[in-house]
Amino acid sequence: MPSHLGGSSEPGGDATSGVCRSILDTVGRTPLIRLGALADGLAATLLIKLESENPGGSVKDRVALALIAKAERQGDLSPGGTIVEATAGNTGTGLAIAAAVKGYKCVCVIPDKMSVDKIRLLQAYGAQVVVTPTHVPADSPESYHRVADRLACELAGAWRSDQFADPANPAVHYSATGPEIWSQTQGRVSALVAGVGTGGVISGVGRYLKDQNPAVTVVGADPEGSTLSGDVLRPWKVEGIGGDFEPDTFDCDVVDRWIRVSDRESLTTARLLARREGLLVGGSTGTAVAAARRYAAELTSDDWVVILGADTGRNYLSTFFDDEPADGPSAGPSVESSGGFSAESSTGPSGESSAESSVRPGAESGAGPSVRRNRSGSRALPTRGH
Questions:
Q1: How many CB atoms lie within 10 A of CB 377?
Q2: How many CB atoms lie within 10 A of CB 246?
Q3: Which of 6, 124, 129, 162 is most buried as measured by Cβ atoms within 10 A of its Cβ?
Q4: Considering only 37-46, 87-96, 203-212, 331-340, which range has the smallest mean pLDDT?
Q5: For the chain, percent helix, then strand, then coil, each to nearest 5?
Q6: Catalytically annotated residues
Q7: Cα Rg for the chain, rounded, in angstroms?
């Protein structure tokens, strides 16, 4: 594994014995899977880069390690420090795993539209979870980005990772994910299809592939309601992609074409991937595969289309994989409402940050985890960035 990923500098950790030095050495080198049933009737070859095979279950493990490695090199993150991240779940998981291995504390600020599965996963790795309202403007002090900014200022020894602005995000995909795809396809890749959250994947991988072959087409798969592809802003259900602004980590010039996909088509496609291909993936991968199938209808047998499979469907078992989902927002985790989350409330009795200080068991049988929540505003805006 490349040293910039934060693991060992050699694949597998110990090259002589095949023993990994830690779980971090297993990030990257994910498989490329050829689609079968869902590619029926298409002349082109459709391939999924299965990032769910990373230890945290998503492509964001790569980003998390790259961000931490850079912060450590620059002295922004010191031993025993606290990582603070605004996340839709996946980047937070990658950071929490790395924090567990490296001895850091981790606080993840997430919007209340995220699945209970993601909250439980973050807590399982020892992260504290702060839930903020989705229904507020992006610049509201109650939004998940602004709450994370505030906590980073209040908590001693805190470092605010920022996947939306740090160039280490697209850089790791240019230096690692892109070369993996080029090598796995032996240079035959003719198109890349990916969703856009922070834009790091599509920018880094897309730029690398175009540098190898300028004829490679990069297709952005976007939810209906996202302004990235020029739609009128309105809410959508697919997590982690789409948005109402262009992050610093997104190079829009890399994208040659946009294909817009509805929630229904995205989530139906994700379920079909599990039931007909044996691939349990998230809704954003459903979006990307749906877009790729449309795009591939125009192609020939000479074309190889690589689809970015961003995360595992295990994060969504309580949502779109649930055949009988509970109704309404109360179906999510039990939430402890508070006027805010302060430095004092983020520490346990011993003065150390602890998950126990911000959670309590569900009040009813089967209730989800309880997490602190900031009070909400009113306007609905979507969430992105995994």
A1: 16
A2: 14
A3: 129
A4: 331-340
A5: 35, 20, 45
A6: 60
A7: 20
Tokens read off for 120? 């439980």
Report the relative pairing of strands 45-50 and 32-34 from DSSP bridges.
antiparallel
Q: What percent of the chain has pLDDT over 70?
A: 79
As a whole number of angstroms, the distance between CA 299 and CA 295 comes to 7
CA distance 248 to 163: 9
Q: What span, in angstroms and rounded, lies between the C-alpha atoms of 77 and 64? A: 13
Q: Whose structure tokens read 């498989």? A: 31
CB atoms within 10 A of CB 127: 27
Interval 265-291: pLDDT, tens: 999 999 999 999 999 999 999 999 999
User: What is this structure's pTM?
Assistant: 0.81
DSSP codes of every residue in 201-251 = HHHHHHHHHHHH-TT-EEEEEEETT-GGGTPPP-----SS---SS--TT--
**Dist. CA 124–CA 254, nearest whole Å:** 37
171 contacts 164 by C-beta, under 8 angstroms: no
Domains along the chain with CATH numbers: 25-53+174-316 (3.40.50.1100), 60-165+322-373 (3.40.50.1100)
Place of tokens 């020939």: 300
- Tell me: the pLDDT tens digits for 102-127? 999 999 999 888 888 889 999 999 99
Q: How far apart are CA 352 and CA 338, in angstroms?
A: 21
The pLDDT tens digits of the residues spanning 33-71 come to: 999 999 999 999 999 999 999 999 999 999 999 999 999
